[in-house]
Amino acid sequence: MGIKTWVVALASVVTVAACLGEEEDTVSKGSETCDPATFEFLIGQDVSALEGVTVPEMVRVMEDNSPATMDFHENRLNVIHDADGKILAVRCG
Q1: Which InterPro entries does the record associate with it (predicted)?
Q2: Whether domain 3-92 has CATH 3.40.50.2300
Q3: Which of 27, 43, 64, 92 is within CB 3.0–4.6 Å of 34 for a Cys-Cys bond?
Q4: pLDDT by residue for the chain (93 residues), tens digit each?
């Protein structure tokens, strides 16, 4: 194999590795357990920011002051937003 082949192969590996690293960072945001501090980065963002974020199995997205059941689930993430869809708070319960 010539030097040119090695350079092309090395460049390909570096490019793929860089892409994988970026994807991993995006997917790693959030958590499968409910810890409000983990989801604070969502506050102030649009509800659509939840797409692509790792969340617990139980998630309840609701508008501020809307009626909700009073049952408590420690692993449920509650995402509260305003009428415009801006996330105001994230809580467990």
Answers
A1: Prot_inh_I78 (IPR021719)
A2: no
A3: 92
A4: 555 545 444 555 444 445 544 444 434 578 888 889 999 999 999 999 999 899 999 999 999 999 999 999 999 999 999 999 999 999 999
Given CA atoms 33, 36, 41, 44 in this order, what sign does their dihedral have? Answer: positive
What are the contacts of 67-76 at 24+ separation with CB within 8 A? 74/34, 75/33, 75/34, 76/34
Q: Where are the domains of the chain?
A: 3-92
Question: Strand, coil or helix: what is 25?
Answer: helix
CA 71 to chain CA centroid, nearest Å: 25
